[in-house]
Amino acid sequence: MLFFSFFKTLTNQTVTIELKNDIRIRGTLKSVDQYLNIKLDDIEVLDLVKYPHLSSVKNMFIRGSVVRYVMLPRSEVDVGLLEDATRREAANQAGKAR
Amino acid sequence: MERLSLNESPANAQPRSPRPQNQFAQNALGPAGPQPTGGPPQLPPQMFTTAAQLLDLTDKKLVLILRDGRKLIGVLRSWDQFANLVFQETVERIYAGQLYADVPRGIFIVRGENVLLLGEVDLDREDDIPPTLTKAPFEEVFELKKQEENKRKKGDKKRYDELQALGFEPEHSGEILF
Predict the structure, then answer these.
(1) CA B4 to chain centre
(2) Closest CA to A20 of A69, A86, A76, A78
(3) Mean of pLDDT over chain B
(4) Does B43 contact A43 at a Cβ distance shorter than 8 Å?
(5) Number of C-alpha atoms within 13 angstroms, CB side, residue A46?
(6) Which ipTM was obtained for this model?
(7) Which of A27, A79, A28, A46 shows the shortest CA–CA distance to B178?
(8) How far apart are CA B46 and CA B119, in angstroms?
(9) Partner-chain contact B50 A35, CB within 8 Å
(10) If contacts are CB pairs under 8 Å, which of residues 47-66 in chain A contact chain B?
(11) Residue B26 above 70 pLDDT?
């Protein structure tokens, strides 16, 4: 749930998503759901020559299971807060497992 | 749309339905302290569901890309929470080299796990096909595609063998392609 909440705080930011088949798409993050499916607006494909079929696409829905990386704007991420949150989440999980 | 804050107590985001929304109630990034007055307004949690994302795309002309590299163009008519989809008036577009061809296919029911992405076709730009691409008869494109596939499979096999000799397990052996 942590990363779901985290991505929700990034809505309306410009992100670059790399898929597992190496295609990279930049766009405005519009929405995310519990599976980390992502909706992007005003997309731009970084290597359009290789992927001509996306030339007329303006916004898209990407299934969470095919995402490799999400590149985020550095200025919009509070790294300290995120580190704390991940540690707290890990401690909670460890507590539950015991 | 307004930005969300890390604190998640939904101040102005009352769920419309009475059903429990447990997965949203808990604040995963920290204890939900009292929302500072005048903090950023928040979007209702029901905005962040698969259903809300797919609802916008229903009855629109979409490009559907499948895990095996197929590109289908059609109208999204129905779906569920796993992104299982129903497509109507589907056309499969195959690309090879600088050529492409359209094959009418009809109605598709697609199991969600095979979906890579759904792109909404901008109807104003739909006919702006890049000048490097030419439409060709299906047989010609299909033949060219088969040759390309065979070449790629050979290259993949070679890379796979080399990686395996070094102790790496390749992420996918060229199975996912656009």
Answers:
(1) 24
(2) A69
(3) 78
(4) no
(5) 11
(6) 0.83
(7) A46
(8) 22
(9) yes
(10) 48-63, 65-66
(11) no
Residue B145 sits at φ, ψ, to 5 deg, of: -65, -40
**Of B118, B102, B121, whose CA–CA distance to B64 is shortest?**
B118
State the first-to-last Cα distance of chain B, in angstroms, to the nearest integer. Answer: 32
Torsions phi, psi for A5 (to 5 deg): -60, -40
The average pLDDT across B109-117 equals: 92
Distance between CA atoms of residues B160 and B28, nearest Å: 40
Q: What is the pLDDT of residues B42-56, one digit of tens each?
A: 677 777 888 888 998
Instruction: Find the radius of gyration of the CA atoms of chain B.
Output: 23
- What is the C-alpha to C-alpha distance for residues B178 and B176, in angstroms, rounded to an integer? 7
Q: Which amino acid, residue B71? A: K
Asked if the C-beta of A84 comes within 8 angstroms of chain B's C-beta atoms, the answer is yes
